[in-house]
Amino acid sequence: MNNDNTNVNSNDNAEVWDSLMKTIYQKGLASLRAFFPNVEGLIANDEKFGQIFIYRVTNDFKKSYDCGFFLRELAEQFQDGGRDAGEWMASFFYELMKTNKGGKELPGPHESEQKEEEFIDHTLFPHCLSAVSEEFAPLTITGHRGLDANHTPVLELGFKDIPAEKCVFPIHYLYKMMQLNRDPSDTLLAELAKLRQKHGVE
């Protein structure tokens, strides 16, 4: 009897979850179609991040642009009825179209952990540090790689004039952002700006 009840509850929960995912996916399509006529997509399941919603926009020149979004951020965008969600989602595609005239599909996975590390060291970090330095110039930025309490590799960033507090970003999250054709420096800039506001400095 208990096992039957457990199975029924599990099935109900799975159906509710599937329905929620489909609803968010369809809202994403509808939001983007208000800006672009040719939009398609899919829901991918990532081992670390769970459901990721990937959309493809094809422009009038038959060039395709892919961009991925995390479940949490789409759920937040649609929370208030999604009035600004389409504009927010479309902004990433406009940026891709501006900087990649020939289209930009999602990059494939790196061949090995070594290649991934090389990409992080020679592409991801320089890009992030350059964006942060440019945004907050002439302030001195402090930063280094480290491990958080769960031994997760992180990037710690802060300001020389706020020595007591840093912003900590999981490296695998920043890497995933780039794999979804998103600019990870957007997250860094937003959090560092909040840090300065919190300490009452500009």
Helix fraction bin:
40-55%
Strand order across the largest sheet: 1-2-3
Structural class: alpha+beta
Query: What is the H/E string?
Result: HEEEHHHEEEHH
- What value does the average pLDDT take? 91
Architecture (CATH level 2) name of the largest domain: 2-Layer Sandwich
Are there runs of 5+ residues with pLDDT below 50, and where? none
**Strand residues, percent:** 15-25%
CATH fold category name of the largest domain: Double Stranded RNA Binding Domain
Give the overall silhouette. globular
Report the radius of gyration as a whole number of Å.
20 Å
> What is the highest CATH level, the class of the largest domain?
Alpha Beta
Task: Please characterize this protein's 3D structure.
This protein is α+β, with helices and mostly antiparallel strands and 202 residues long. The protein has two domains: 2-99, Double Stranded RNA Binding Domain; 113-198, no CATH class. Helix content is 50%, strand content 23%. It contains six helices and six strands. It has helices at 2-33, 71-78, 85-99, 113-136, 171-179, 185-198; strands at residues 39-46, 50-58, 64-70, 141-147, 153-159, 162-170. The strands form two sheets. It has a three-stranded antiparallel beta sheet. Strands 4-5-6 form a three-stranded antiparallel beta sheet. Strand 2 (50-58) and strand 3 form a beta hairpin. Helix 1 (2-33) crosses helix 3. It is globular, with a radius of gyration of 20 Å. The N and C termini lie far apart (63 Å). 19% of the residues are buried.
